[in-house]
Amino acid sequence: MHDGQGILLDFEGDSALQALTGDYDNQIKYVSEGQKNNSACTRC
């Protein structure tokens, strides 16, 4: 990234991943997107 930070994308909303980024908050941007109801999803 342009600001020198990585991005951790969490599609499951895992609290353990969010807690992990607390140790590296100056190096990692945490982005969480919970699962949305999607009838077209074949792996849900």
Distance between the termini: 31 Å
Report the C-alpha radius of gyration, rounded: 13 Å
Tally of helical segments: 1
Coarse morphology:
flat
SSE order: EHE
Description:
The protein is α+β, with helices and mostly antiparallel strands and 44 residues long. The chain has one domain (1-32). Helix content is 18%, strand content 23%. The chain contains one helix and two strands. The chain has a two-stranded parallel ribbon. Helix 1 links the parallel strand 1 (6-10) and strand 2. The longest helix is centred in the middle third of the chain and has 8 residues, at 15-22. The protein is flat. The protein starts with 5 loop residues before the first strand and ends in a 12-residue tail after the last strand.
Short description:
This protein is 18% helix and 23% strand. The protein has 1 helix and 2 strands, in the order E-H-E. Helix 1 links the parallel strand 1 and strand 2 (28-32).
Please supply descriptive tags for the structure shown above.
1 helix, 18% helix, 2 strands, alpha+beta
How do the helices and strands line up, and which of them pair or pack?
Blueprint: E1 6-10, H1 15-22, E2 28-32
Parallel strand pairs: 1-2
